[in-house]
Structures are given as C-alpha cells and as structure tokens.
Amino acid sequence: MSYDFLMSSALRIAQGKFGRVALLDMNRPLVRHAHPHCHVLLKVEGADTQFSVRDDLVPLTNESAVLVNAWEPHAYAHDPRRPPTIILALYIEPRWLAEFRPNWTASGRPGFFAQATGAITPRIRALTDDMARAMVTEPAAQTLHETFLSDLMIAVIERFTPWRETAVSLRNLARGPSVDHRIRTVAAQIDADPGAIRQIDDLIAATHVSRAQFFRLFEASMGVSPRVYLNAARLERAVQAVSGSEAHLSAISESLGFSVPAHFSRFFHDHAGSSPSGFRAVTRKPV
Fold first, then answer.
1. Strand ranges (DSSP E) for the chain?
2. Do the Cβ atoms of 202 and 223 come closer than 8 Å?
3. DSSP 103-149
4. According to the model, what pLDDT value does residue 176 have?
C-alpha cells in the first residue's frame, strides 16, 4: 500500500533561546540539507524509518536515535510503502547548551557526535514521549517544554558524546580546519542576506578563482557545498520570518529571492517538513 496521498506536516513547533523543537508528522522525503546546529531526531510513534547522514543510511526506531552534527549533510529517506512517522526533531543552539557545561559549545562544530546513530536509554525514551506529549497538550507551556528539553539534551549528550568529561583544548581548536579568507567573506555575505544571492556564480566571481576551485575551497572550509550552505541560511531566515513576524508569505518569499511564492513553499516543505502556513499555524498557539 502507498501512503503518497498524505502530506508531511508540523504538529507543533517550540522555539526559544534553546533553538527549535519540531514535532513532525513525516510522510515525504526531505532533500539533502544541513543546519548550523547539532540536530537530534527521535521517533515518537508510527513506522520505523531512516535518514541519510552524509553517505550512510541510519535507522530511526523506538530504540535508536539519529544524531547529526552541525553542517553535516543529511536527508529524510522515507519509504512510501510505510505509514507516516511522528518525529521529534531538535535543533539546539550551542550557547544554550553552554549554560549546562561551557565545553558543550562544541555542539556547534563538526564531530560532536562520533556516530550518526545510537541505541537510546529508557530515560531518553521516556523524556522524548514526555516532551512530545507536552507540546501537543500544553502548547503554550514554554517553561515546561524547556525543562523537558534540558533533561532530554543532557541525557542525549551524556549517552552519545565524550564531552561531559573532556575539556575543549585550545590547541585542538587551533589545529582544526582553517577557513580560506575568500570563503569566509563569501559565507559572511550569504549569512548577511541570503535572499540577495541569485546565483552561485555571482559568489564565485568575487573570489577570482575557477568554479572548480571555488567548490573545492568552499566544501573544505565549510564542510558543505555552497548550495547547501545558502539553502541553510535561507531556511533559518525563513523560519524566523514565518514564525516570528506577521509578514505575508509572498513578501517573505520575495525577500529570500524566490521568483514565485509556490517555489518558496516547496523549498520550505522540502527542508522543514511542513508548508510555511502550517509551520506558522502550529508555532502560534494562544497563551
């Protein structure tokens, strides 16, 4: 049986200084993309499923989590023969994690999670269910959400990373991958106004290197392709505008460089798992 007649949607969105938590009812694939945050995916109910993280397919089940480092390319690899899956997706700000332990700012750099999947503990399972239930039944209870999220992220980090006991070494940071100064300038330009970037070739021209060399330099410096980086910047700007402003969706679409609103809607759905209007509706619950 095919379930293609169903559409993926956001059931609830919680936002705060912690970043973003999305409760998603997923029935369609997501395109290959990346985020500037560490990203944790936990199954809530429905069919077992899988994600592609870099070049590996990893399972998302009742017993396992998917763990994605900042700027690590990944995609949702949905099987259309399976029923939908409700997924708790965490996009966590490193500065918020640093309030628990200063060295947890490392969550914003590659390699925070050593593996893309791992077996969860009964405590992680229970906290996942509690968080999802609270988002549905008490959508305005921001303090409760943050309490559950704090406990959940501490449990995840203690389970899946060595950073609880390991200090961040300045020597190791200094020896980490360097960013070419031309690529740093291009990345800053993208971050400042992703909607102003119409073509990747416009960025290449400013660096005075060949197209092939530009792509090599960019991926070596940033860990992702220029297109994935630009799309990540566009998505974060779109999420902020959709959930945090009253702007019409067509105006947001135009500000982000989309020629028609339908293209923006498809982009948003393919990256965030929900239409922009649906995302806005479930982010704004009455207090």
1. 9-16, 19-26, 38-46, 49-53, 56-60, 64-68, 74-76, 85-92, 117-119
2. no
3. GGGGGGSTTSSSSSEEEPPHHHHHHHHHHHHHHHH-TT-HHHHHHHH
4. 54
Q: 170-191 burial string, b = 16+ CB within 10 Å, else e? A: eeeeeeeeeebebbeebbebbe
49-60 per-position pLDDT tens digit: 999 999 999 999
Q: Kindly compute the dihedral angle of the four CA atoms of residues 267, 271, 273, 274, in this order, to the nearest 10 degrees.
A: -40
Domains of the chain in sequence order = 9-170 (2.60.120.10), 181-283 (1.10.10.60)
Per-residue pLDDT tens for 134-185? Answer: 999 999 899 999 999 999 999 999 999 986 555 555 555 555 557 889 999 9
